[in-house]
Amino acid sequence: MPKVLKEKILRSEALARSIYRMTVESEYISQTARPGQFVNLKCSDGIEPVLRRPISICRVNREQKTFELVFQVRGRGTELLSRKKAGDSVDILGPLGNPFEISAHYKKIAVVGGGIGIFPLLFILDEYGKHREDNLKAFDLSAFIGFRDKDSIVLKDEFEKACDTCRISTEDGSAGCRGFVTGLLEEELSRKHYDIIYTCGPTAMMKKVAETAGLYKVPCQVSLEQRMGCGIGACLVCACKTKYGDGWEYSHVCKDGPVFWCDRVIFDEQVEDFG
Ligand SMILES: Cc1cc2nc3c(=O)[nH]c(=O)nc-3n(C[C@H](O)[C@H](O)[C@H](O)COP(=O)(O)OP(=O)(O)OC[C@H]3O[C@@H](n4cnc5c(N)ncnc54)[C@H](O)[C@@H]3O)c2cc1C
Ligand code: FES
Is this prediction's pTM over 0.85? Predict the structure, then answer.
């Protein structure tokens, strides 16, 4: 059940050029949020910008009652958010959206992300990691994360700690493997089976991940990004076409998503995004 909350920022730090991490104290979000969910933030105490901005929950710390957001400055809203400091408060609505399906039934798990799409994937790895500690279940966790160049790489250490295998690609080859992260996934799938793939990032990347998953018959969930207004299914701003039987229907990314099984997504109808 989402709530409007005014919470305290404990830390705000720049991770890379125009990428910031904000650590927020929130008993409610830290205890109730699930991987794939997001919060809708008011970016300033004034009137402008009127609309809240959606940011995925990157991690929660249930013991310390905190959660983390990592965001890229894109425009006015995220610029204002990046100016907030430790001790300031932030007005949030959340947790929102349909989360990723996390199940002990999946043993071999891959997350595939590109650009700002990598942030919600860390929460998935943490959640499986926690299951592993609690139940001694043998999960095999792999991450494939792609960036434009070496200066855009963020959260590398966090990903490496959270999984068993972490492979990085950069488009210009300045770090990790040269090329797209989808190439790394294809290479891996040709020799190893996964029980599920979770992906988030640019539409073209997710489309390719979904096609590759389909080829190897691996279930795949994608997290879509759309411009949003209310974040709760009331304003229709985030409507997108999804498959329904032999035809299609409108879904709300904020309420029915942002996470969908890939076979419901009509990738060519998705607005271009901001990987
Ligand atoms: C469910 C969800 C989760 C998200 N999680 C994250 C996250 O974890 N980290 C992160 O950095 N960003 C995330 N985003 C994107 C973030 O919400 C936008 O970057 C932010 O709203 C931009 O606001 P702004 O005022 O800074 O920019 P604006 O001035 O509103 O826009 C700047 C530019 O970004 C484009 N844009 C803005 N919002 C969207 C959108 N939703 N889809 C496509 N293009 C858009 C605009 O067309 C414009 O070109 C998420 C978006 C969604 C829908
Ligand atoms: S953002 Fe208003 S319906 Fe989705």
Answer: yes
Residues 6+ apart with CB under 8 A from 76: 43, 48, 49
| Tokens at 183, concatenated | 């190439």
Ligand 1 atom with the smallest distance to the CA of 254 is: 1
Is the beta carbon of 231 within 6 A of some atom in ligand 1?
Answer: no
Give the span between the Cα atoms of 59 and 67, in whole angstroms: 6
Classify residue 8 as left (phi > 0), alpha (psi -120 to 50) or beta. beta
Is domain 3-96 in CATH 2.40.30.10, yes or no?
yes
**pLDDT tens-digit profile of 127-171?**
999 877 666 567 899 999 999 999 999 999 999 999 999 999 999
**CB of 239 closer than 6 A to ligand 2?**
no
Whether 169 contacts 275, CB under 8 Å: no
- Domain boundaries for CATH 2.40.30.10 within the chain: 3-96
Fold observed for domain 108-225: Rossmann fold (3.40.50)
